[in-house]
Amino acid sequence: MRTMLILRQVHTMQFIKKLLPFVANRYFIVSLGFVVWMLFFDQRDFFQQRERAAELQKVEDAKKYYQKEIEYTQKQLNNIQNNKAAIEKYARERYLLRREGEEVYLFEDTLHPATK
Fold first, then answer.
1. Which residues of 91-116 are buried (b: 16+ CB within 10 A; e: fewer)?
2. pLDDT digit string (tens) for 43-72?
3. Are 28 and 22 in contact (CB under 8 A)?
4. d(CA 68, CA 74)
5. Is residue 116 part of a domain?
6. Res 72: pLDDT
7. Using the 8-state DSSP alphabet, how is residue 38 labeled?
8. Same domain, yes or no: 4 and 23
9. 8 and 37 together in one domain
C-alpha cells in the first residue's frame, strides 16, 4: 500500500516536471488569460451569448407562428371577400347574427373552456 502511494507521488512529480515548462511559458499564460477573460469578463461573454441564442430561437419560433397566423387570416379574408355564403357563416359564428324569425341556441362546453 505504501509503495503504491510512493509510486503515485513519483508519477505525479514526473508529470509536473514535464508540464511545468509548458505552463510557465508566457504565451500559454497570456492565452489562458485571454480565454478566461473572453469566457467570464468580456461584454459579450460566453454565457450571455448562450442566453441570446436561446432568446433568438424563441423569437424565430414566434415569427414562424405569427407568419402562419397571418397566412390563415389572409385566406379567411380572401374567402370572405369572394364568397357570400362565407360572409354569412362568419357573421353567424362570430357575431351571433341571425335571420329574421330564426332562433339561435348557444351551447357552452363546460368540460373544455373556450380557447378563443
1. eeeeeeeeeeeeeeeeeeeeeeeeee
2. 888 888 899 999 999 999 999 999 999 999
3. yes
4. 10
5. no
6. 94
7. I
8. yes
9. yes
Q: What's the half-sphere exposure (Cβ side, CA atoms, 13 Å) at 3?
A: 0
Return the higher-pLDDT residue of 36 and 62. 62
* Domain identity same for 49 and 92: yes
Number of domains the chain is built from: 2
Taken as a whole, the chain contains a residue count of: 116
Which residue range forms the structural domain that includes residue 11? 1-42
- What is residue 3's DSSP assignment? H
Q: What is the pTM of this model?
A: 0.53
Residue 49 lies in a domain: yes
Is the separation of the CB atoms in 90 and 96 below 8 Å? no
21 & 36 share domain? yes
Phi and psi angles of residue 109, each rounded to the nearest 5 degrees, phi first: -85, 105
Cβ atoms of residues 32 and 23 within 8 Å:
no
Based on the domain organization, do 34 and 50 belong to the same domain?
no
Do residues 39 and 46 touch, judged by C-beta distance below 8 A?
yes
Shared-domain flag, residues 9 and 26: yes
The predicted pLDDT at position 24 comes to 77
